[in-house]
Specification:
single chain; alpha+beta; 10 helices; two-stranded antiparallel ribbon; Outer membrane efflux proteins (OEP); four-stranded antiparallel β-sheet; membrane
């Protein structure tokens, strides 16, 4: 019977410590349609080296970005970018806070030792203590004010800290995904600006030849001064565009240096605008909305929602008594040599209970605050899902018409080149006037610039889809 009671006591304590006042967590339903649809998006594209790849949140970045120069810059950014280092430090801070909170679940064990020296020469004359010197030594180990978590207050606080730690990890992953997309976009932008600079140089040469020819015709009385001035304006515009493009290329490099966290060399920079350096092949016309649940920012929002749910449990537990335990086991003697001798040991156990009767609404206010925070986290989570859904849908909608736009721009550029060659030949033969040729030159220049912009939009759209889906971190 005695053994049964001894077993029943720890069983009762374990049963009580299993209490949890937190509501059962249920993930909110996705407040978006089941699929992200983009009309007109269908069929695989032709990727680098003819490969076919389906991009998802598990696709590693080095499998998506295949240009060796770009991958080197991306790796430099992952190793040296200061914003990413800050995000990593935030993770370590959250990890440390979780460990601090989790430590409250277990008792803090400490050891103490003390010595007391006392000399009472007149103690014996009063009938009290024996006169003379008395040396007392003691040593003990024990726990002080350890709260027994009967109602789950500490466990819920520890769970909330753990979820905040998990959220910080996902925030770091989101920062990495955003950094990869930002570096890739900056690298592609520099490649496009380099191409614009090359075209400006080519057009400057063509406009210069036209200007010299017009001046020669003017000297012979064949062309008017108006034609010379018009040719001069086109030539000067090309020169101005060269200066502006040179500035943009230099600024693009500065931006890449900042993102990479180090100075890049010429071998790391783009050597021309890539045609297949970034691939996004065989994307279906519809993507399931559940794919958004892999986005780091949405995962982080759900962890914060779980933390808010745990905080409700901690606020509820505050209405119940807090039971603490202080205990010590040690030894005491009048001589140091007998400190751990037979008969010198002692122990003390001091349980205590604390229950607030009147707090003038403090616990109620904390509980209402926790519930309101949970409601806010639900709305934040749902908004994160909706924002992610829109980003993916917008990127897919842009991609749906990208092929047609690019094809039209290529055809426009080719037609403009052909028209320029014909008008130039007719101008030199004296069939057409100078204005026709000048207009053709300007049309070619505009078409070349528009084609570069279309190619850049196509490449950055691929990067945006990769980022919107959640990207790969490996």
């Amino acid at each position: 019977m005695r053994n049964t009671k001894l077993l029943a006591t720890p069983a009762l304590i374990l049963a009580l410590t299993a209490c949890n006042m937190a509501p059962k967590y249920v993930r909110p339903e996705l407040p978006v349609p089941e699929t992200t649809a983009a009309a007109g998006l269908a069929g695989p594209g032709e990727g680098a080296a003819g490969t076919v790849m389906t991009v998802s949140a598990e696709t590693a970045w080095h499998d998506f970005f295949v240009d060796p120069r770009l991958t080197r810059v991306l790796q430099m950014a992952l190793d040296n970018n200061r914003d990413l280092r800050i995000a990593l430090a935030n993770v370590e801070q959250a990890r440390a806070q979780y460990r601090v909170q989790r430590a409250d679940l277990l008792p803090t064990v400490g050891v103490t030792g003390s010595a007391a020296y006392q000399d009472q020469p007149f103690a014996g004359s009063t009938g009290g203590a024996v006169s003379g010197r008395t040396d007392t030594y003691s040593a003990s180990a024990g726990v002080s004010a350890w709260e027994i978590d009967l109602f789950g207050r500490i466990r819920n606080l520890s769970s909330a800290a753990q979820q905040e730690f998990f959220a910080s990890v996902e925030n770091r992953n989101a920062a990495q995904t955003a950094l990869i997309a930002e570096v890739a976009t900056a690298w592609l932008t520099m490649a496009a600006d380099q191409e614009r600079l090359r075209i400006a140089h080519d057009l400057e040469q063509a406009f210069g030849q036209t200007l010299e020819l017009t001046r020669a015709r003017f000297a012979k009385g064949i062309a008017s001064e108006l034609e010379v001035r018009q040719a001069q304006t086109s030539y000067d515009q090309a020169r101005a565009d060269i200066a502006a493009s040179t500035t943009r290329v230099a600024q693009d490099r500065n931006a890449l240096d900042l993102l990479a966290g180090t100075a890049l060399t010429a071998s790391d920079l783009p050597s021309g605008f890539p045609e297949t350096d970034v691939t996004l092949d065989e994307l279906p016309a519809e993507l399931p909305s559940e794919l958004l649940l892999n986005r780091p920012d949405i995962v982080a929002a759900e962890h914060r929602l779980r933390a808010a749910n745990a905080n409700i449990g901690a606020a509820r537990a505050a209405f119940f008594p807090r039971i603490s335990l202080t205990a010590a086991l040690g030894s005491m003697s009048l001589g140091l040599s007998n400190l751990f001798g037979s008969g010198s040991d002692y122990w003390t156990v001091t349980p205590s209970a604390d229950l607030t009767i009147f707090d003038f609404g403090r616990n109620t206010g904390n509980l209402r605050y926790s519930r309101a925070t949970y409601d806010a986290m639900v709305a934040t989570y749902e908004k994160s899902v909706q924002s992610g859904f829109r980003e993916v849908a917008d990127a897919l909608a842009r991609r749906a018409t990208m092929a047609d736009e690019l094809e039209a721009q290529v055809s426009l550029r080719d037609a403009a080149r052909s028209a320029y060659r014909l008008s130039d030949a007719r101008f030199r033969a004296g069939v057409d006037g100078f204005l026709v040729t000048l207009d053709s030159q300007r049309t070619v220049y505009s078409a070349e610039q528009s084609l570069i912009a279309a190619r850049l939009n196509r490449a950055t759209n691929m990067v945006e889809i990769y980022r919107a889906i959640g990207g790969g971190l490996n």
